[in-house]
């Protein structure tokens, strides 16, 4: 009987882990696709150059991640997805009513709010992953990786495959929002979003301790205010050096490869740039998806090899674009870049999940450390877009996409 009871407990826990994995995978998928649907419908690439569009889309994410991890504990976990879902529904309605001939400020505003809403949900989920553990992180890595891969191909499939306008993609906002809400409230185990009940004395003590610790992250002083400031500064400095820097480099390599090395490549083997760019982006994001999905198979604690490989492959990809060595080599190189960068992303977060820190400290660290990811996307994207423009102006070769009529 005892053996049967233990077996049942193990089965129940395994099913609980699967629910956690599935819920975070679906939430990550929806949260990654939603901003791209709004961004694509706004057509900001028409009135503004590429590097300005990247600034508009990514800067709100960076600012949100810099501030929100320290105050989000004030909002109950089960209310956050409802607030975010309401924002997405409003954004969908506004996007439908603002065609490209509407003045850009309105479309810029919806783009900024979309990026902010996605960042809010990411910070919230990473905080809950601190409670859920590695099954939640594995699901988040799998789902967000699948989301970036989907974002690489859906514009081409929608426009060239289905013959529709990019603006019609807003139809799918409702489906993604429904997926996000159902995953959070139906699939995700309640223990992840509810730390305890008021009748549980131990849970109450944990909540009081977490609230006190949360105040120390909210820049409130006290008798030991100077010590808290020193401890907080030391923790943030360690995060920047050991976790944020690898995330910054990984994200910068992805953005640089995506926005800086595509148009200077040889385009003679494809009929249209849209087809070429979808293939190029798919190779890059397929690597990201695989890298983020291999947490259990390829765990990493030291990122020197990953970062060295990222630097080498990015440099080789740059010179391949300059000298037009091979388009197929470019696909392979960006796949490797995505693979290494995806592995760095999920393993950095895994290191924080596995550390024996206080609950709130771990949740704040998981949210704040992704500032490196947003900062890398911003810097790599802007530098890549500017470098791409410079390369297309200075490198005279009719085979390059930027020299061809598309």
Automatic annotation (TrEMBL):
Location relative to the cell: Endomembrane system; Vacuole membrane
Segments crossing the lipid bilayer: 21-46, 52-72, 172-189, 244-262, 274-295, 307-325, 331-354, 366-387
GO annotations of cellular component type: endomembrane system; vacuolar membrane
Biased composition (Basic and acidic residues): 197-209
GO biological process: amino acid transport; regulation of intracellular pH
PANTHER family: BATTENIN (PTHR10981:SF0)
Protein name, entry field: Protein BTN
Organism of origin: Glomerella acutata
The organism's taxonomic lineage, starting at the top: Eukaryota, Fungi, Dikarya, Ascomycota, Pezizomycotina
């Amino acid at each position: 009987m005892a053996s049967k009871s233990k077996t049942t407990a193990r089965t129940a826990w395994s099913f609980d882990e699967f629910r956690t994995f599935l819920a975070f995978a679906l939430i990550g998928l929806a949260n990654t696709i939603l901003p791209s649907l709004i961004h694509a419908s706004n057509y900001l690439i028409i009135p503004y150059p590429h590097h300005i569009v990247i600034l508009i889309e990514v800067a709100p994410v960076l600012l949100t991640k810099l501030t929100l991890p320290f105050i989000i504990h004030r909002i109950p976990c089960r209310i956050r997805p409802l607030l975010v879902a309401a924002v997405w529904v409003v954004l969908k309605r506004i996007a439908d009513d603002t065609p490209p001939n509407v003045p850009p400020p309105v479309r810029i505003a919806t783009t900024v709010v979309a990026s902010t809403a996605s960042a809010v949900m990411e910070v919230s989920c990473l905080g809950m992953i601190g409670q859920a553990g590695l099954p939640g992180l594995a699901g988040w890595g799998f789902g967000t990786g699948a989301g970036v891969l989907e974002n690489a191909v859906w514009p081409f499939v929608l426009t060239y495959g289905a013959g529709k306008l990019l603006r019609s993609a807003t139809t799918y906002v409702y489906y993604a929002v429904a997926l996000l809400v159902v995953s959070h409230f139906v699939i995700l185990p309640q223990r992840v979003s509810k730390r305890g009940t008021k009748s549980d004395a131990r849970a109450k003590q944990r909540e009081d301790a977490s609230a006190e610790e949360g105040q120390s992250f909210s820049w409130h002083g006290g008798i030991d205010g100077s010590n808290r400031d020193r401890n907080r500064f030391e923790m943030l400095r360690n995060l920047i050096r050991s976790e944020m820097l690898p995330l910054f480099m990984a994200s910068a390599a992805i953005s640089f490869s995506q926005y800086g090395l595509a148009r200077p490549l040889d385009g003679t083997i494809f009929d249209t740039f849209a087809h070429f760019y979808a293939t190029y982006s798919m190779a890059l994001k397929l690597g990201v998806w695989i890298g983020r999905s291999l947490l259990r198979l390829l765990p990493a604690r030291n990122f020197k090899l990953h970062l060295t490989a990222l630097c080498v492959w990015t440099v080789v990809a740059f010179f391949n674009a300059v000298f037009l060595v091979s388009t197929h080599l470019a696909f392979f190189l960006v796949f490797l870049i995505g693979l290494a960068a995806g592995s760095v992303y999920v393993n950095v977060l895994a290191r924080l999940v596995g550390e024996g820190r206080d609950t709130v400290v771990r949740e704040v660290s998981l949210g704040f450390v992704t500032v490196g990811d947003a900062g890398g996307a911003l810097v790599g994207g802007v530098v890549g877009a500017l470098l791409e423009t410079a390369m297309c102006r200075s490198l005279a070769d009719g085979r390059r996409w930027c020299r061809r009529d598309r």
